[in-house]
Amino acid sequence: MEQVRLNIDGVDVVTTPDRTILEAAREAGIRIPSLCYDRRMEPYGACRICIVEVEGARGLLPACATRVTDGMVVRTDTEELRRIRRTIIELLLSDHPRDCMTCESAGNCELQDLAYEYGVKETRFPGEEHHYEVLADNPLIERDYDKCVLCGRCIRICREVQGVGVYDFVNRGFEAVPGTPYNRPLTETPCEFCGQCVSTCPTGAIISIPSKGKGRPWQVEKVRTTCPYCGCGCQIDLHVRDGEIIEVSSPVMVGPGEGNLCVKGRYGYSFVHHPDRLTTPLIRKDGELVPATWEEALGMVADRISKALDDKGPDAVAFLSSARCTNEENYLLQKLARAVVGTNNVDHCARL
Amino acid sequence: MTNSIDDLEKAGCILVIGSNTTEGHPIVGLRIKRAVMKNDCKLIVAEPRHIRLCYYADQWIRHRPGTDVALLNGMMNVILAEGLADEEFIRERTEGFEEFRKVVEQYTPERAAEICGVEAEEIRRAARTFAGAPSAAIVYAMGITQHTTGVDNVLSLANLAMLTGNLGKEGAGVNPLRGQNNVQGACDMGALPNVLTGYQPVSDPQAREKFEKAWRVDYLPGNPGLTIMEMVDAALRGEVRVLYIMGENPLLSDPDIRHLREALEKVDFLVVQDIFLTETARYADVVLPAASFAEKEGTFTNTDRRVQRVRKAVEPPGEAREDSWIIAQVASRLGYDMGDVSAPAVMEEIASLTPSYAGISYRRLEELGELRWPCPSPDHPGTPILHVDKFTRGKGKFSPVEYKTPAEEPDSEYPLVLTTGRLLTHYHTGSMTRRVKPLDELVPENRAWINPADAERLGVAADQEVAVESRRGAIKVKARITEKVPPGVVFIPFHFGESPANALTNPALDPVAKIPEYKVAAVRIVTGKAMEGLEYVTA
Ligand code: SF4
Ligand code: SF4
Ligand code: SF4
Ligand code: FES
């Protein structure tokens, strides 16, 4: 693709013409604040937080929705821009419950980050505030529109990325919120509980119920791994606090899902800590499975395999490996069958 | 998959057949939806059930379960008759075209339509859309393979792709979606009775010699072993004495539960290594507690051949241990030292013995995040699209495929067709998802999906408990009355042990792939008093 040269805050940047100013800046390590932007969707240009000055342009331009052109000279951080951004933030905060202390999204909230960065403490625009009912009409996703900044990301991700379109702005003017048709509970919409809306909402307006109150971002360690469910192989981050997985997210633009997951990948993790997990070997004694030591259990397995080998030869032993285990484990199991026991009786449930 | 998941968005047309993609493989489903919404890709859905993708489809063909070959032959008949085939591709890159043509010529759209229960015009239209697109991809899943004609179905899809030149290029290909996360990897690793890693045949003396050397053994057996269904029969005949099952729950996933249960009871010694006391583990003589995916290091290979890392995030509970440790312990007690079984070391061994994995290492995966096989050397970038210049076996071979009826067709005694499958919220035998509270709350119970016309005839109301009975057994399940299944068809998901769909399914196998026919079995619905006399199977 052809190349475009531009200058952002005095830095020469070379990129391709399909990039927006915001993308080109981020690639060059220059951070422009944003709120209604998410790489997974088409630019929307609604919140105006990302406005920049472009030499020769009339007015200020939203960096997230403006494509780069050759020779462009861009300024992202002037006094004027900071003043406007501060005003936008103040307006947003004028109708926002300031309960960061208990809000599920604190530490992972783009509005909180903006207020912090721009030092906005008080709003100069006190006025009427919304008090919506918190909607927890299903086991997974909770909505609190008091915290909504009307960025439209939930609406767009559900429509553009998930292809479902559960939400749209309902009501007009001051009362506008992203809602479901006739305010139906999510369980009565075509919602697939993918949680894409949760993952994109910049504030605490849409959150995951199972991870509520379980840990702050700085209290968790994130471990990148591969989803244990279907063959898509989405990349997931397990959020671990004190040895417990408390949430799953997906890195944006990484792996087959590019940051999107399905209900199983995003919410199907707690089986790991289920009390039904087997915690000791079991051996059948007098018809009952009773706890045993590894020594006993492994000894018994080896004895019985040896006995079958002596009595009937290697083909009296058969192994079922697993489409759920890792490559390495599958490799080792067929090696056990072939090299140690001496049989090709090894299969798994691939067909099933 | 011959192509990659990302590549689907480049297709001009996608034929989805035998895959309820948005539920079975949601992220592939998402990419297909996006191809339609953003890129104006023409989507053809061929599926007896009304699935979510039908809402995005240019065309939905509701053919009878088990008639895929007839449908595809019909489409190819139109493509040939209307001169829409890719002559150059056929000439340069394929063989066996003439015999194939003779068979396909017999399948006029009228004849195919009659078999499939659709209109001839629908078949014509699908053929024109598919062949007319600049690139057309085929996506299929277990709805194609889980038939006695599974291999025939797959060969027909390969025929269609070759006939239209849709292999070895972007936005095209024949793309099977694998059921579980690491089916691809389990196959690649030689967890199959007839091949070692990377599909090296056990019957090949050279391959055996290589492995004998590496594994320091004098002799590896060259005769293919038993497939899972054959193991069951051999166990019943007393030939298999010890069965060692790692991480599978065949009692819910296999057809004809009763038969399998007898086999599990019959074997002298059953070892089950798993994270839960599954339905199958309850029959074991020894149960070994394993670590879950979050408690170990390793790799999975996804459906588009991407090898990706699995990383340890938490400790296994109690005394549960990694499967690799357990296997090495068993081996050592049988007098064999497996040496270092840490995941990176094992991958090194795999790479040294497997040409398609030769360039894969933990160091590279750490750096790149993913690698797609074939990756024959440490500087190879991996292969997103297969068969670009040529096929593995040189020329692509057309296979003449005749339509065959399913092994069991509905009759006066068992007048309905049962087809089984998955739900979005649950996974496989449910041992994991049903233990996730919010997921179980979303979909707590099984339902048998019945068309309103059948429901009315049988006098079944919504949520009424009925018995569904086949020649192999009966289960109790509540009815969901929905147009999503066609008249004459009952759909039952197989995730639920209380009402296991696989008590009913037919273990008849595809003669080559040995896959049971999950997608077609003859059943009847029993209501009221008559339900009392039945014996119910639960897993
Ligand atoms: S969970 Fe997914 S389908 Fe449901 S509203 Fe959110 S984005 Fe849409
Ligand atoms: S709910 Fe969240 S994502 Fe949706 S419009 Fe409000 S702030 Fe944006
Ligand atoms: S998140 Fe969903 S689509 Fe992705 S791998 Fe997991 S189960 Fe499959
Ligand atoms: S981030 Fe650019 S307008 Fe909102």
Task: Describe the protein's architecture and organization.
The complex is a heterodimer of chains A (352) and B (539). Chain A is 24% helix and 18% strand. Chain A has 352 residues and is of the alpha+beta class. Chain A has four domains: 74 residues, Ubiquitin-like (UB roll); 147 residues, 2-Layer Sandwich (Alpha-Beta Plaits), CATH 3.30.70.20; 31 residues, no CATH class; 40 residues, no CATH class. In chain A, strands 2-1-5-3-4 form a five-stranded mixed β-sheet, covered by helices on one side. In chain A, strands 10-11-12 form a three-stranded antiparallel β-sheet. Chain B is an alpha/beta fold. Helix content of chain B is 31%, strand content 17%. Classes of the chains: A alpha+beta (352), B alpha/beta (539). At the A-B interface, strand 10, strand 11, helix 6, strand 13 and helix 7 of A face helix 2, helix 10, helix 12, strand 7 and strand 8 of B. Strand 15 of chain A pairs parallel with strand 7 of chain B. The site of one iron/sulfur cluster has 11 residues of chain A, from helix 6.
Secondary-structure map:
The complex is a heterodimer of chains A (352) and B (539).
Chain A: E1 4-8, E2 11-15, H1 21-27, E3 51-54, E4 61-62, E5 73-75, H2 79-94, H3 110-118, E6 141-143, H4 153-161, E7 168-170, E8 177-179, H5 196-200, E9 206-208, E10 221-226, E11 235-241, E12 244-249, H6 263-267, E13 282-285, E14 288-291, H7 294-312, E15 317-320, H8 327-341, E16 346-347
Helix pairs in contact in A: 2-3
Chain B: E1 13-17, H1 21-24, H2 26-39, E2 42-46, E3 59-61, H3 68-81, H4 87-93, E4 94-95, H5 97-105, H6 109-116, H7 120-132, E5 136-140, H8 142-145, H9 150-163, E6 174-176, H10 183-188, H11 205-215, H12 228-236, E7 242-246, H13 250-253, H14 257-266, E8 269-274, E9 286-289, E10 298-301, E11 306-310, H15 323-333, H16 343-353, H17 362-368, E12 370-372, E13 396-397, E14 416-421, H18 437-442, E15 447-450, H19 452-458, E16 465-470, E17 473-481, E18 489-493, E19 506-509, E20 516-517, E21 521-526
Parallel strand pairs in B: 1-2, 1-5, 2-3, 4-13, 5-6, 7-8, 8-9, 14-18, 15-17
Antiparallel strand pairs in B: 10-11, 11-12, 14-21, 15-18, 16-17, 16-21, 19-20
The structure holds iron/sulfur cluster (3 copies) and FE2/S2 (inorganic) cluster.
